[in-house]
Design goal:
The protein is mainly α. It has a domain of 100 residues. The protein is 52% helix and 0% strand.
Amino acid sequence: MNALSKEVFDKAKQFITNHARPLEVAIFNHHFNNGGINKLIEELKKYQNRDGGFGHALESDVRLPDSSPVCTDRAMRILMDFDHLEEAKELIKSAIHYYETIYDKERNGWFIVSREVNNHPHAPWWHYNEDVGMTIIDHNWGNSSAEIIAYLYKYRTYVKTLNVDELVDFAIHYFTNKKEFKSENEIYCYIYLYKVLPESKQVSLHAAIEQAIDQVIEKDEANYKEYVPAPLDFVPRPKSPRFGISKHAITNHLDFLLDRLKKEGVVNPPWDTEGDRFYKDQMKPAYKEWKGVITLENLILLKNYNRIIC
């Protein structure tokens, strides 16, 4: 079996240790150096605002210091793994309160960032269009409303004002009646929702998610180097539901990740490999942050599938 050597792993480790944000360093240490969870939560807490949401460029392409669903979602993905700890529970409880306070009744969901994003450096796809009252990402309702509903469902004991069951039913109806899928990110959000639901609810979603993935997943392995939805984006762990994705496709994607790390040592953002398109001037810090984030994500994927020798 093709696996990442200690030499290549150490090169990626050195980059993360020396150049990634303290949060990614803490996550790396937790996964690979038996690092304590408290340090990880301490670093994550620095991104939380008084309203309970997260901001401060936790999502590197959004330099807005204010809270936003996109940053809060990113925090919740981390916190879910530690929700047995009191320190994490407090952050989660505050985040749930934030989600409730910014719920948009007319949308029956959430907008991923507020118009204030335009007052700070941001990638063009996060620009708030005043004419339509949303970003281009918000045209797909499930991104990130479906993911937020997943957190409301999982942590419903903290929910005070919203009817979680009605939101779940609305989300399922929206997705199962959708015929054309264009946003892989919306599908990722629905996979988060799928994973927290009971089997009786999962049955309604499974076929729709499988159909959606089949429409968007990149089937040509030669294109994995581009910013495309690939097998491991949908199946990050061996025990994750595969939604029709073959073991062969997963193996080939793992081999691609290994080969890229062997050749390059780190992983550049595939949507801007040189950092000269979107990451100029005030956005320069985001480019280095993304290198740390994506390199770490690749290492964790390889670890999940026992593809690292160290």
